Amino acid sequence: MNRKRDKGMVPFVLAIMLTVTMVLSGCAGKEANQPASGTSTASPAASEPPAEAPKLEPAVLTWYFPGGVQTGQAEVEAAMNKILQEKINATIQLKPTDWGEYDQKLQLMNASGESYDLAFTANWMNNYYTNVSKDVFLPLDDLLDQYAPTIMKTIPQMGWDALKVNGKKYAVPNYQIWAKTDAVTFQKELLESTGFNTDTIKTFADIEPFLAAVKEKHPDLYPFQITRGNFGGTLNVSYGYDEAAGRNIPGVVRLDDSSMQVVNQFESEEYKNHLALMRSWFQKGYIRKDAATLSDDSADFAAGKYASFLTGNLKPGGESETAAKLEGREVKDVALSKPYLLTSSIIATMTAVSKSSKNPERAIMFLDLLYSDKELFNTLAHGIEGKHYNKLDDVTVEAIIDGGYAPNADWLYGNQFSGYYRKGQQPGIWEETIALNNSAAPSPLIGFNFDPTPVKSELAQTATVTDQYIPMLETGSVDPEKYLPEFIDKLKRAGSDKIVAEIQKQIDAWKQ
Amino acid sequence: MPTTSSKLSAGRLAAHLVFILFSAFCVLPFLYVISISFSSERDVALEGFKLIPKNVTLFAYKYLFASPTSLLQAYGVTILVTVAGTALSLLLTAKLAYALSRKDFRFKNQLSFLVFFTLLFNGGLVPWYIMITKYLQLNDTLLALILPYVILPWHVLLMKGFLTDIPPELIESAKIDGAGEWNVFYTIILPISKPALATVGLFIAFVYWNDWWLGMLFIDKGSLTPLQYLLYRIMNNITYLTSAVRAGNVSIDTSQFPNESARMAMAILACGPMLLAFPFFQKHFIKGLTVGAVKG
Amino acid sequence: METTYWQRLTKDINKHKGLMALAFPGLLFILVFYYLPIFGLVLAFKNYNYSDGILGSPWSGFDNFKFFFTSDAAYQVTRNTILLNLCFIILSTIFSVVFAILMFELGRKSVKVYQTAMFFPYFLSWVVVSYVTYALLNPEMGVVNMLLESFGMEAINFYFEPKYWPFILSFAYLWKSVGYALLIYYTGLMGIDRTYYEAAAIDGATRLQQVRKITLPLLTPLITLLTLLSIGKIFYSDFGLFYFIPANSGALYGTTEVIDTYVFRALRISGDIGMASAVGLYQSLVGFVLVLTVNAIVRKINKDNAIF
After folding, report:
1. Nearest residue of C to residue B90 by CA position?
2. Taking the CB of residue A431, how many other CB atoms lie within 10 A of it?
3. Can you tell me the ipTM of this complex?
4. Which of A3, A4, A5, A176 to mutate to test the interface with B (most CBs of B within 10 A)?
5. Which residue of C has its CA nearest to B132?
6. Helices of type H across B102-167
7. Which of B200, B217, C30, C173 has the most CB atoms around it within 10 Å of its CB?
8. Cα dist. A235→A183, A298, C205 in Å?
9. Is B8 a member of any domain?
10. Using a CB-CB distance cutoff of 8 angstroms, which residues of chain C are in contact with residue A292?
11. What is the DSSP string of A257-298?
């Protein structure tokens, strides 16, 4: 009954918060405690030679990114500033903002014109395209050519192609796993106990014998995890599609279709068959009965209750990462598709410069240093040696628990491949990842970005329809014979055809 | 007491029964929450929610208290904001509500309408945010946690509802004796309306205590982080660390991680103290101290 | 002598300057925090972009309203919102008034305990509550289903059966809000002059008669106030209740989807401020008209009970 003031905006606000909180991947520090005192414009060890950067005025850069505030942040900033002051006479203020509010906070800051320099952006957070269309980011082409030689050298052309809007670069991508491969992950122990041979898997449906065996031998486990359904984003590549306008928005292009014809994925044969498959698995008990309504099964997941689940993305070193999430149970990833380069996977982590920045050149120089200066990058990613981490060998480090700084966020920024390996990651996976990236086939849609304004009303309406039907259908909780036609019908009435036509129109125009 | 029937009349007993039942319903989920906060995450995952934890463990609390300084600081901030905010808000709300409750106030209806209008229409988050950060420059200050809630139209109208009962003769006679409006307010109105002040004061205190919204929007500095916001942040980080990562770009070790239990522990830490405040306000719910008594 | 409007106004202000002075600080806060930002309402009619700001962004007519009003769901969610809210208002008023009156009969110590206990739900966020309701209602291990099965009845998949939900939601709403409303009415009861009851008792009136002739009439202004305010908010919903408790189950949308949750789902990805603003305006306007109407009616019946 209180707080009436923002009732009108509550849905909107929560929209931002919940999107992030519920849907997506994330990584934040273990210790989510406040920093000792966030600001530091002058580094404590103020004994660096002033003659190093004579022409540059001192600059203070602010950088917003999602993540938890770490107790050790002040020390890390100080260490970074030492390097920065020497090289570019600047200091950085790190502003990690919690996942749930990053979007909201950035949006408000942009709306009120608050000044900041750098911000994390992606297609799933602080939406890159929305910000570009609202004139929030600075075009970086000239700045990059002038001040960022390392970045230009390191990032392959396809990276830039993916993120250009109207021919201009508005952000710097993080160099890490870009290739997207749909895959299924199995718990190794269960593969052995059921004797299932993963080589027999050619398509997604081929995992069924495993599920049946698990159901028989291990009735206390769930054979397959598919909470709330996730065809889009985890299986669409294996079925041969790239989403043209965004997650679960009607309108995809086949990866092998160079004519780029846009179709509504929900009307496709593949989707229909997929739903029938899910339904049969649900009825056979391979999928948990409350899969459609469960909001949080992370505890079950960590306890190893799922025999198999969708990987999300196949990558070198992924298996050991997953094992860590499963209390050490070993897993095996089996690819369902070839690796592809999708716009969405490339622009999944980028850093942009705000138009309100007072030092854009220095901001770019800083970014370049993150790419070129290993010490700087590793300080940001891991902290200070001895205090926050210990070196296990030349290239591997182990975080010190309670050391105060372990953001686990090196996938957010810089060049992940120049950083140390974390304990449990095999040395060599960086090179393997680069090789994987390079070997992946680009989707025909690379570089295409959809402008939603002409159909924003239809998009809003279809969003509610997909929200309603996808969890039910894609978990097999309801009979697709009845509900799929209903779903498609509602989509059409909400304007899905119009959306598909608009996407086609924009693609055709972009193709020229 | 209005009646002289014995304490244990059937009616009374029935009333007690009803309340015991309903109160139990209200408190039960809370007991679940407490129980889960004292359980280990594994037990919660394997056994589901239970009223009595299988193994009592302080792990969730230990995790939340891992950095006691920040938690204590947050408590300090919130307590300060709540006390100062409630005092200020209660005073200003009461003054305004009183003026609006006076039937002989020429502008009573117009101003009431003005207050009421804001309950329904508001310009949205963005202009309000711009107002506070750009024009009032309250970013990262303690005032940002206090000022926006000093006047909440709902409380004004509620208080007005309570104060309307005060008979005008009381005020008339005071004025005849030569008292000015302020005098009347402080010496007569405030003492009479103790229950109303206590009730609205309690509501205001809850608003300040429970708020994480203002903290989220306006506070960057660690030393000014209010309690609910801190707990909310900790929770968010836990959620991220433990939810299954689909895009598969991250590497995190989440084996031991308290999630459900931490969430519940937070809920306890968050509202515990407030429940202690209850008795403080209830002291003033004195039945019988009414206008009639004062009229003498 | 002719006086202009302004002269009369100034004279009135002067006459009431004591009260004006009392009211002034509060009004100042309202001006700054509520009325100055109110121009943001225009965003409902604009295509907002940051560089042009609120005032400079281009007008877009009724575009922002399209997504809601041309949708199939507009009628359904509006209907759900009104019906469920009406239900809530009626139930909440009845329960809290009855409880307050009952509670007034009891001794102070027990009253304190009950009041505190009944306030617990106020502190739990809907998210936390949803964990508990999920534990009760879910098809896998839900407590309710286990109970049903132990009595030999079939388990109900609550999250796929819309017909139970008006009841479930009403109960959840009551559970959360009764403590708060109860306190308000209890305070109102405290303001009633004891002497009325004494006189009535002397005249031989029964308790029930006392309630009917004294308590209820004197409590009416407060009841009217709260009801009017709730009517003003009738197109708004407690988001947490409608989003988290039904566990976001698509099968229940027909019954549990309200305007606020619909808008949330529709705009979650795009986060379009203009569109959200448009629906907000719609909700505000309808509530506003309703309150004006009801207030006018109340005025006719008893001038003092109206809000303005």
Report:
1. C26
2. 11
3. 0.88
4. A5
5. C33
6. 108-120, 125-130, 143-146, 153-163
7. B200
8. 8, 21, 75
9. no
10. 159, 249-251
11. -TT--EE-GGGSHHHHHHHHHHHHHHHTTSB-TTTTT-S--H
Please write the tens of the pLDDT for every residue from A129-156. Answer: 888 888 889 999 999 999 988 888 888 8
pTM above 0.95, yes or no: no
Eight-state DSSP code of residue B90:
H
- List the one residue out of A286, C43, C124, C260 whose CA is nearest residue B25: C124
Site of tokens 């660096």: A48
CB contact at 8 A, B230 and A34: yes
* Residue B66 φ/ψ region, left for φ over 0, alpha for ψ in the -120 to 50 degree band, beta for the rest: alpha
Give the start-to-end residue ranges of the domains of chain A.
24-175+346-442
Query: Which residue, among B60, B73, B218, has the nearest Cα to A71 in the 3D structure?
Result: B73
State mean pLDDT over B36-50.
66
Say if B157 falls within a structural domain: yes
Q: Classify domain C63-305 at the CATH topology level.
A: MetI-like fold (1.10.3720)
Residues of chain A contacting B67 with CB distance shorter than 8 Å: 31, 33, 71
Q: Do B93 and B156 contact (CB within 8 A), yes or no?
A: yes
Q: How far apart are CA A197 and CA A210, in angstroms?
A: 9
Minimal CA separation from B290 to chain A, in Å: 27
Chain B / chain C CB contacts < 8 angstroms: 270
What are the pLDDT digits (tens) for A349-373? 899 999 999 999 999 999 888 888 8
Question: Which residues, 6+ apart, have CB-to-CB distance to A263 below 8 Å?
Answer: A251, A252, A253, A254, A500
Q: Residue B171 sits in a domain of what CATH number?
A: 1.10.3720.10
Number of domains comprising chain B: 1
CB contact under 8 Å between B233 and A35, yes or no, is no
B212: which DSSP letter? -
Fold of A24-175+346-442: D-Maltodextrin-Binding Protein; domain 2 (3.40.190)
The two structure tokens encoding residue B143 = 């005032």
